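Lecture 7 notes: from sequence to structure.
We start with the chain below.
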Amino acid sequence: MTVIAIVSASHCRGDEVVAEVRDRTAAKIVTDEHLAAVAAGASGLEPEKILRAFSAKTSVFNAFTREKERAAAYLRLALAEALAEDRLIITGFAGLLAPRRISHVLRVCLVAETRFRAALLAREDGLAEKEALKLLHKDDEDARAFVSLALNQKDPWAAGLYDIVLPMDKTEVSAAAALITENAAKPVLAVTESSRAAVKDFLLAARVEVALCCEGHMVDVFARDGVITLTINKNVLMLQRLTEELKRIVEKVPGVRQVETTVGKDFYKADVYLRINFELPAKVLLVDDEREFVQTLSERLLLRDMGSAVVYDGESALEMVSEEEPEVMILDLKMPGIDGIEVLRRVKKTHPKIEVIILTGHGTEADREVCMKLGAFAYLQKPVDIDQLSATLRAANDKIRRQKEARG
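Predicted structure tokens for the same chain:
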């Protein structure tokens, strides 16, 4: 049976359409949440972090961790594995990750005018129209972010992405389900040897992409009959060395017969290719009210390939912790408002896995004892030698990695 991939704008009665298509076809429903759970199991990332690939909000640390891109890679792998079955209804944006070469996938989009959606949302949740429109705007921003990341597209509802686009403000649920089911049964969408081969290629490409991600590399991957083509889209100072490293990684993936590399259209732009080094801390939050000092410190860490974000007071630090989940915090003690000891106390209570390095120019021996009892990883005095601080950061990062590995 044809695989049906249904993408619905929020509040377009998508759940009702999917339920009726399922009743008509007896197909298995695969949701974005299900695929995210599978991807999380393979990647070690939490399902919520996988789903953030669907979100317009990008972490301030993403330039260093590339978690969004890694999440999308594991999501592709989860989808490719799911496509081993035929009788499926894939709901959500993940279905768009299936290449066009897989010809037995029917891609359906359910959309509607914004005012129709807002009225439906307002009626369902008892919201004012203005609030409903605000929520819809966020949903659409997330949709745009996902297709931009995964498909390099700007419009999630562009007709070219789909085989069928249904205006749900003008189409009844039963009529939409009937039209989808009727089209899914057409011979042109039947499963063929070539479409099964395309699924096999997609699965191999996804496995290669994940293998590269695990080594810190982000390149475009295409597979056909065991031949892998890697496209490098950012400038590389030593291209030959990079291609040799990529080939070494990819050749180990089962099913790969040959590896080819090429450069993409963006290769000659200013952006420089950077490999992610998982042995270095990439989610460091610097908290200090001495702006010039902390900005300089951030720049010096960046020169050592350590990614950091900066805030200038305790309240901002606590907000950042709740929103961005840094792994290591470098924290000053004497700050206006909430001081460093109180920040440390709250962080260790709510996010005990964050390692906190105290860096202060005004602390006492009594402060040091309090901080270590509260769970600080280290207590350093200003001015600090950058090599000593770097070594302390590496040690904190090593502890975090060991704890992650112990958790499985």
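Points to note: Residues 216-276 form a domain with the GMP Synthetase; Chain A, domain 3 fold (CATH 3.30.300). The chain has three domains: 3-189, 216-276, 284-407.
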